[in-house]
Specification:
Largest sheet: 6 strands, mixed
Strand order of the largest sheet: 5-6-7-3-8-9
CATH architecture of the largest domain: 3-Layer(aba) Sandwich
CATH class of the largest domain: Alpha Beta
Number of domains: 2
Oligomer: single chain
Structural class: alpha/beta
CATH topology of the largest domain: Rossmann fold
């Protein structure tokens, strides 16, 4: 299988800034149709990785390719829609005039650009703001313009860096609808975000980067219910072996297979059962388990 098969192919990428290891032998492959979450603490190397793919940051070793083409190559970048963390639209332009200028870069005339943008601007609630100067728009509205700018040319690969930043609940709902529609149409997404709920909800797979290294890969299957059950009960004595006392209650973690037996023992002992719940690992727990900086993630 060749690199051309993959929208994103990164092999043994190396980029240091002085003593800072932004990318340290980092490798990643994203297949067509995958939604992959890129997560990690501040300074982990996420932006450097994206920059290396787009030709904005040069590598000192290894390689990064888009659709089999080297970084900065027109053939690969033409298939990409990119929303940076800090999106910029000149204050003296309106969203309409800005999109028309960007459309020219994609070989689209103004009529084609506005037609292609219409559905997105409507869904994102931008129609009444498209002829206002960008300098007069709020950060949230500008973020919506950035989302339109990254998608109106129908790219095959979308790279989003904190797309929900500055969006109100209505904007976030619209963004989720857009992402789910992109997934339905087999588009590919690399989502860089500290919003664990969004990553967990939208992405098929997530990768954790720290100090420039790949520290873990997982999917929602790895966030499944564990084999333990938490039981909280009240009794003057410890009924379930290994229970810990907290705020006047006993807390015990027992195997699923022993749940019914332990509950029956509690009932026979006259204990008051406060809670019985299955232990579930969420994405935050998963990240902390992979990190070397457990107090800083």
């Amino acid at each position: 299988m060749t690199n051309k098969t993959y929208p994103i192919s990164v092999k043994n990428a190396l980029r240091h800034f002085g003593k800072i290891k932004a990318l340290d032998d980092f490798s990643l492959t994203v297949k067509q149709g995958e939604f992959v979450g890129l997560i990690g603490p501040n300074g982990a190397g996420k932006s450097t990785l994206i920059g290396s793919l787009l030709g904005l940051v040069g590598l000192q070793g290894g390689e990064s390719k888009l659709f089999g083409f080297g970084p900065g190559g027109v053939q690969g970048k033409a298939k990409v829609g990119y929303l940076p963390e800090f999106f910029f639209c000149p204050d003296y332009l309106t969203p309409n005039s800005y999109l028309k200028e960007i459309g020219v870069l994609h070989g689209m005339n103004p009529k084609q650009t506005l037609s292609a943008s219409k559905g997105l601007t409507s869904l994102l609630g931008l129609n009444s703001h498209m002829d206002r100067l960008a300098g007069k728009l709020s950060k949230g509205l500008l973020r919506r313009v950035g989302i339109v700018r990254s998608l109106f040319h129908n790219p095959d690969l979308i790279i989003f860096d904190e797309p929900a930043w500055g969006l109100d609940p209505f904007g976030r709902k619209a963004l989720n609808e857009i992402l789910l529609d992109l997934k339905k149409h087999k588009k590919t997404l690399l989502l860089c975000s500290h919003n664990m709920e969004m990553v967990e909800t939208i992405c098929d797979r997530f990768v954790f980067i720290e100090n420039g290294k790949l520290k873990g890969e997982g999917s929602n299957e790895d966030l499944s219910i564990e084999d333990e059950v938490k039981i909280v009960y009240e009794n003057k004595d410890e009924v379930i072996s290994g229970s810990k006392q907290l705020d006047g209650c006993w807390i015990a973690l027992v195997d699923k297979k022993d749940r019914e037996l332990e509950i029956q023992n509690l009932i026979k002992s006259g204990s008051k059962i406060i809670e019985v719940s299955e232990n579930k690992t969420d994405l935050i727990d998963w990240v902390v388990s992979k990190s070397d900086r457990k107090d800083e993630v």
